[in-house]
Amino acid sequence: MERKASTARSDLEQMLADETAEPKALPLSLLQDITGDFSDDQQIGSGGFAVVYKGIIGNRAVALKRLSNALMDETEFHREVQCLMRVKHKNVVRFLGYCADRQGSMEKFDKKLVMADVHERLLCFEYIPKGSLDKYIMDASREWRTCYKIIKGICEGLQYLHENHIVHLDLKPANILLDDSMTPKLTDFGLSRCFDENQSQDITKTIIGTMGYLAPELREGGVIARSADLYSLGVIIIEILTGQKGHQATDGGN
């Protein structure tokens, strides 16, 4: 077990040093080790479906997205991993690996202790220190040159996804990270769809995405297409240029 953990640690260190290295499966024991067993002190973000931790490996850092066991959808996890395995671009956060683990755990149910299956699903990414774009939009000191660089980078990242038949479907400032040089990187592919080469759209009965950035055709007709991302992109560009969260008006369909 120790040898396996040591090998996995070495593999992850090599991946961080080699940007051409391919993502791979990572053991849960390693991810527990580099986060202090998912210590609260290492938590750097949280949402309705996941908690994000900072992991330390050598003199480098990684970001670990730990999906909620209660809310986790196996299909969504597989979809996100499949999409992430296909992408490699300077404006998309680098995917390093994943963990899919199942363990038995004694849990209290109806005043009794029962053995329950605990599913652990984690995604490992490069660590982006400056956080997300939504924290920068309201910054009064932002400069036009930086705004242009961010907009250009988002457009290039989105173009890359679309050329590779991937529709993001949850493009918003919170899902765009900024590195030390203010280069934007698209992240969070939990709702993304990977199309076949000749496929241009799909239909869903479930509203997916974030209100305010949700295209009318997706919100009202369930149409999944590249145009949905372009609508979200337009809202983001307006917010970057104005320095204001302007999407409230779009929630009412105006």
TrEMBL record:
Signal sequence, renumbered to the chain: none
GO molecular-function terms, A-Z: ATP binding; protein serine/threonine kinase activity
Top-level taxon of origin: Eukaryota
EC number, as in UniProt: 2.7.11.1
Domain Protein kinase: 38-254
Pfam family, one: Pkinase
Catalytic activity of the protein: L-seryl-[protein] + ATP = O-phospho-L-seryl-[protein] + ADP + H(+); L-threonyl-[protein] + ATP = O-phospho-L-threonyl-[protein] + ADP + H(+)
Keywords from the named record: ATP-binding, Kinase, Nucleotide-binding, Serine/threonine-protein kinase, Transferase
InterPro entries: Kinase-like_dom_sf, Prot_kinase_dom, Protein_kinase_ATP_BS, Ser/Thr_kinase_AS
Residue positions binding ATP: K65
Enzyme class: transferase
Keyword Glycoprotein belongs to the record: no
Membership in a protein family: Belongs to the protein kinase superfamily.
Protein name: non-specific serine/threonine protein kinase
